[in-house]
Design a protein that fits this description.
By secondary structure, the protein is α/β, with parallel strands linked by helices. Helix content is about 45%, strand content about 10%. The chain has 15 helices and eleven strands. The model is unreliable at about 1-5 (pLDDT under 50). The two termini are about 30 Å apart. It has three domains: about 10-135, no CATH class; about 145-220, 3-Layer(aba) Sandwich (Rossmann fold), CATH 3.40.50; about 275-465, no CATH class. It has helices at about 10-35, 55-70, 85-105, 115-135, 155-165, 205-210, 225-235, 250-255, 275-315, 365-370, 375-385, 395-405, 420-425, 435-445, 450-465; strands spanning about 145-150, 175-180, 200, 215-220, 245, 260-265, 265-270, 320-325, 330-335, 385-390, 420. Helix 12 (about 395-405) links the parallel strand 10 (about 385-390) and strand 11.
Length: about 475
């Protein structure tokens, strides 16, 4: 199995089939238990003719089971975790599933024994827990060792990759050392703790591979190149009809998924193509208005409860307004439920929120954990200062800093900022601005309406699992 590709497809199919079988087994077991066993707090045995309900409702139970496990992240790539963490995640998923079934059966005026539904939830949890412990155990690599990688470069990007591989060894990749590029100066010992020892120059790579000292190579020598500075300079001033084309060398020609344009027999890569947003923006805006209006109406009762909790838990206003930077670097006012003390930034210094931030109110941590404080931003979406999906808006002070420190950062302001984005569903909450920019530029280069819908669905998973906080 390749460590780059994660689980083989058959293992994912096995999970789905096993989860479906567990749902049906738990449902049948719950009915059989009620028919043949006297249980506490029940009036008697369930009549045997109630088994006929199985023929009508098993499809609904099966669909809810699979959808519930998807949104709670059980079909993501499995990561090593303690059994208590697995039990906790499953407990939340089963509780949510039981609530969904209650809504389906009772609010839909469908006949279904209450005690059987409770037994189903218990059996489903126990069977799923046992099944998931078996199927999500670390894959036996057949004696295969970790793959040793050489990181080409010693700058911030190289150190970021090395640190990530050290913190997440389950990827099966171990840093063997780094390659010093000709334009780089040897770093000090403190900054190469994760990078390991210098393995030489790029000219030494063929020999390292031949000798079996390394298995893979990660290129991390990019940064403040003249190409990145050019894109920064064009951002905000480039007309929609502008193209930026690249005559590729052998390295660029090997990169898949590129769009090419031919000039006679010369292949040019479309690095920045003529803007398609003039055509796409009306469709994206229609999605924002339709989905944003539905979400705002759907969450109004929840917003009212959260607003009352904010008011009762600490002195100060319910809503918090803050200046953020939007499309074309124009400022706008973002709305949120207040989650911090009113004097959180009394000295007017912009600070990023941190885990266990002492400035949070008693209810603020809960609101942030489940992103409930961001519901008022749907008003920003409807008024047009934000979109449902796009780069997350930053504060002016941070923007000015990142424009100086992060090559290519200005390009992200070609789009309206989003309530969620590709960086939010793929990256971590406290990921570096450089890493978030990689996702944001990838989103811009590959946008279509289906990508937006996919990100919105995956955002539901993030909210339900409270990941990244």
């Amino acid at each position: 199995m390749s460590v780059w590709r994660g689980d083989r497809p058959y293992r994912q199919a096995l999970r789905v089939l096993g989860d479906a079988a567990v749902a049906l087994a738990a449902l049948a077991g719950a009915f059989e238990a009620r028919i043949h066993l006297r249980l506490p707090f029940t009036r008697g045995l369930l009549p045997a003719d109630r088994l006929s309900l199985l023929s009508h409702e098993w499809i609904a139970v099966l669909a809810v089971q699979l959808a519930d496990l998807y949104f709670f992240g059980f079909y993501d790539r499995p990561r090593p975790q303690a059994r208590t963490d697995t039990a906790r995640r499953l407990g939340g998923a089963i509780a949510f599933q039981a609530l969904a079934l209650v809504v389906y059966f009772y609010l839909g005026d469908r006949t279904f024994p209450r005690s059987t539904l409770l037994l189903y939830a218990i059996f489903d949890f126990l069977l799923l827990f046992a099944w998931r412990l078996a199927v999500d155990r670390p894959v036996d690599r057949g004696g295969r060792r970790e793959r040793r990688v050489a990181i080409v470069g010693s700058g911030p990007a190289a150190r970021e990759i090395a640190s990530a591989l050290r913190l997440h060894p389950w990827h099966g990749l171990r840093v063997a050392g780094y390659i010093l590029l000709p334009h780089e100066t040897p770093p000090d010992d403190a900054s190469t703790e994760d990078l390991g020892a210098c393995l030489g120059s790029p000219d030494d790579l063929p020999g390292l591979l031949t000798a079996g000292e390394i298995d893979d190579i990660i290129l991390a020598g990019g940064g403040d190149s003249w190409q990145s500075r050019l894109i920064d300079g064009l951002a905000g001033t480039r007309p929609d009809r502008t193209n930026v084309l690249l005559l590729p060398g052998p390295f660029e020609s090997l990169i898949g998924g590129m769009r090419y344009r031919w000039v006679h027999d010369l292949p040019l890569i479309e690095v920045v193509r003529e803007s398609e947003w003039r055509i796409s923006l009306p469709m994206k805006r229609l999605l924002d208005l339709a989905a944003g209006s539905f979400l705002l109406l759907f969450t109004l009762p929840l917003l009212a409860v959260c607003a009352a909790a904010v008011k009762l838990s600490s002195p100060g206003p319910i809503f918090y307004r803050q200046v953020r930077v939007g499309r074309d670097q124009h400022p706008f006012t973002l709305r949120k439920l207040r989650t911090m003390q009113i004097d959180a930034e009394a000295d007017a210094v912009e600070l990023l929120a941190q885990p266990d931030d002492p400035r949070l109110t008693s209810i603020g941590a809960f609101l942030r954990r489940f992103r409930l404080d961001e519901i008022p931003q749907l008003v920003n979406v409807l008024e047009g200062s934000m979109s449902l999906v796009g780069p997350r808006p930053e504060r002016p002070g941070f923007v000015q800093r990142y424009l100086k420190e992060v090559p290519g950062y200005a390009e992200r302001f070609s789009l309206a900022p989003g309530l969620t984005g590709l960086a939010q569903v793929n990256g971590d909450y406290h990921s570096s601005p450089q890493n978030k920019l990689r996702y944001e530029l990838a989103y811009m280069a590959n946008w279509n309406i289906w990508l937006d819908l996919s990100i919105l669905l995956r955002t539901v998973k993030i909210v339900l699992t409270s990941r990244g906080v």
